[in-house]
């Protein structure tokens, strides 16, 4: 684990970011940008899970997270995993196995639920019920019109990055 980057994240544990590519690369890129900018979550490793039907835009997603990472002076290893279409059980098992491995290696782990399709996200969240994970991010956007553009071009009052686990630990109610 690269200690220089761990030091850049506050000297704590190294960080890993797991995300899911769905219908649009924008959702993935914008949620990652929000995690970098709003939470200072600077990962050393990134995994992008997607279903077979989204294999084609996967290269764009890898390029997007690589470019955004470089703008924050980090260079995380980016890996991808293709899962079967709508296989929530298989997807959940793969994500939970990855989280278990990362946690065993000492990583602080975030799962971004924003961009994935429901079967992929639901499978991951159900499987993670028994696996300790540090963050579950979700970038909520109040108006979907004009959301297919870079994060910084969408008015901040229209978007909010949630960490569902952090909110649950604090006992926040739904707003």
Tell me the layout of helices and strands.
Blueprint: H1 3-8, E1 15-21, H2 25-39, E2 45-51, H3 58-71, E3 77-83, H4 88-104, E4 108-112, H5 118-127, E5 135-141, E6 159-163, H6 164-170
Helix pairs in contact: 2-3, 4-5
Description:
Strands 3-2-1-4-5-6 form a 6-stranded mixed sheet, sandwiched between helices. The protein is built from 6 helices and 6 strands. Helix 5 (118-127) links the parallel strand 4 (108-112) and strand 5. The protein has helices at residues 3-8, 25-39, 58-71, 88-104, 118-127, 164-170, and strands at residues 15-21, 45-51, 77-83, 108-112, 135-141, 159-163. It has 175 residues and is an alpha/beta fold. The chain has a single domain, classed as Rossmann fold (3-Layer(aba) Sandwich), CATH 3.40.50.10770. Helix 2 (25-39) packs parallel to helix 3 and helix 4 crosses helix 5. It starts with a helix and ends in a 5-residue tail after the last helix.
Attribute tags:
22% strand; 6 helices; globular; Rossmann fold; 6 strands; 175 residues; alpha/beta; six-stranded mixed β-sheet
Written as H for each helix and E for each strand, in order along the chain, the element string is: HEHEHEHEHEEH
**Can you tell me the residue ranges where pLDDT is under 50 for at least 5 consecutive residues?**
6-10
Rounded average pLDDT: 87
Strand content: 15-25%
Distance between the termini: 38 Å
CATH top level is: Alpha Beta
The helicity comes to 25-40%
